[in-house]
Specification:
alpha/beta; TIM Barrel; eight-stranded parallel β-barrel; 11 helices; 9 strands
């Protein structure tokens, strides 16, 4: 039998080799691509893991929190006159804020059972309030105000008062601003003066200050944001918690969340102002508050707004607080007159 040389065998196999069909080529291409993607994914996952390990988890924003994510102290603050309490020996002593006055109607069998005691956990001090003419009055003696020959209706030494109140725990101050509504000629001077007053208060160790006076409009909240950022940039106020009181008309509106989101406010908590508001003559303060809580319920819950209470000519603060608690609101601050 004739033999076939090696060279001829290779030539024969080449001539009779079956060509690879299209599906086979496609399958190989897909397999190679899948392997490349897998290798890339493993490498990327390893790199991201290294980045995550070297990143502070507190810098990762929550995807479920509202756009505004400032310090959010939740308190139930009792209003107290701004004064330095004194004992008979002349020493200062902090006020008792969590125990209501003793009932002097003992023995009256017709007296209804008393309601549960309100568990206050903070003190609310009115530091500066609006007068009827739109001006503002300090309720303590300020060296800065004296320097500018500006009036105060009190001789209270703020540093001593805050020192006494601090023994009772968290202290929140309420402060009225006038610069947002000042004329263009006076605005800058008024703004700087009020910034300095707030720094003076912060230097005495108060925990937080809630600001009244900013218009609840896009421009008003932008102005509030700039003011607060500047305040917190100053050394005396760097650790201060700051709140902004908002008008109920904004919070009742359909675009409330849009206005709040677009304001850019991230360094201040928000409050619903039911303190410096007008209550219609034929309406009780409690009915007015209930109406506003119903209308603002969605925004209140979304942003966990602080509720400032004290509206009406002669407000019953305890009654107003109980009404808020009945409506499942627990972040509450009384403001005295």
């Amino acid at each position: 039998m004739a033999t076939i040389s090696t060279g001829r065998r290779r030539a024969y196999r080449h001539r009779h080799k079956k060509p690879m069909n299209g599906w086979a080529k496609y399958a190989i291409a897909v397999t190679v691509a899948a392997l490349l993607i897998f290798v890339f994914a493993v490498a990327l996952g390893s790199k991201l893991g290294e980045i995550a390990d070297n990143t502070d988890s507190t810098t990762v924003p929550s995807t479920t929190a509202p756009t505004t994510a400032p310090k959010m102290p939740v308190i139930l603050a009792k209003a107290h006159p701004l004064a330095v309490p004194t004992q008979s020996d002349g020493t200062t002593d902090a006020p008792e804020t969590t125990t209501p006055p003793e009932d002097t109607t003992a023995g009256d069998v017709t007296t209804a059972p008393s309601e549960p005691e309100i568990s206050y956990n903070a003190i609310s001090l009115l530091l500066r309030s609006f007068a009827e003419d739109g001006s503002a009055m300090l309720h303590y003696s300020s060296p800065l105000a004296l320097k500018y020959s500006l009036a105060s209706d009190s001789e209270v030494d703020l540093e001593k008062a805050l020192s006494a109140f601090a023994n009772e725990g968290y202290v929140s101050g309420v402060f009225a601003l006038t610069f947002p509504s000042a004329s263009s000629a006076e605005k800058n001077l008024s703004r700087e003066y009020e910034l300095s007053l707030l720094c003076e208060i912060a230097s005495h160790g108060i925990d937080e200050i809630v600001l009244l006076g900013f218009p609840s409009t896009p421009n008003g909240l932008a102005e509030a944001n700039a003011f607060i950022l500047e305040l917190l940039s100053r050394e005396e106020a760097a650790s201060l918690a700051v709140g902004i009181a908002l008008d109920h008309e904004l919070l009742e509106s359909d675009n409330a969340k849009t206005v709040i989101r677009e304001s850019g406010i991230t360094k201040a908590f928000l409050a619903l102002d039911l303190y410096s508001v007008y209550v219609p003559e034929l309406m009780s303060a409690e009915d007015f508050i209930k109406n506003k809580l119903d209308k603002c319920a969605d925004t209140l819950s979304t942003y966990n707004l602080r509720l400032l209470l004290g509206c009406g000519k002669a407000p019953n603060l305890e009654s107003q607080v109980r009404l808020a608690l009945q409506n499942n609101i627990y972040n509450i601050q009384e403001v005295g007159k």
